[in-house]
From TrEMBL:
Residues at the active site: 49, 131
HAMAP family per UniProt: RNA_CPDase
Protein role: Hydrolyzes RNA 2',3'-cyclic phosphodiester to an RNA 2'-phosphomonoester.
GO molecular function: 2',3'-cyclic-nucleotide 3'-phosphodiesterase activity; RNA 2',3'-cyclic 3'-phosphodiesterase activity
SUPFAM superfamilies registered for this protein in UniProt: LigT-like (SSF55144)
NCBIfam families cross-referenced by the UniProt entry: 2_5_ligase, PRK15124.1
Record's protein name: RNA 2',3'-cyclic phosphodiesterase
Record's keyword annotation contains Hydrolase: yes
Source species of the chain: Yersinia enterocolitica LC20
Amino acid sequence: MINTVDKTMNKRLFFALDLPDTVQQNIVQWRAAHFPPDAGRPIAAANLHLTLAFLGEVSQAKAQILQQQAGRISQSGFHVTLDDMGHWPNSGVIWLGCKNPARGLLQLAQLLRSQAARSGCYQTPLPFHPHVTLFRAAIRPVAIPAKTTSESFRVDHFSLYESVFARGRTRYNIVQSWPLTSTHRTSDAI
């Protein structure tokens, strides 16, 4: 007899940065204007995000531990500038990324990936490459257009997401979010 209870209790989780609505819409409009319809499977605007640490299938108990660890992170916010593009044909991903990622972004990702690894979540040995996936299933060669403008936004929190597949679609739902500290002193705001 196969025990399916454990499998249904697990959730597919990842830590990520959400994109402001205006950035999501700008990316979707730019993507539609610069890529052919058969470039790959476009990611829905609401699902655009920047993954910090992929956790995989995680039990409720492990998820609670990871959430507690994330809640202890004390780090300043930072800016993200999406000004680079590429195509990974082996994984079928066309992405929008950062030429020079902010130090805070790299530190946050490293911290979350380290905590995940110590909690038993497999972490790829590949270096962290901050990016937003624009298309999946882009397995044939695709001409990458020149990115003439960049999207930039302030990051003041990070989130734990759950990937849910239902009715033939994948949705990314925020489970919990944690604030990053302000880099502005009170006296500077006056």
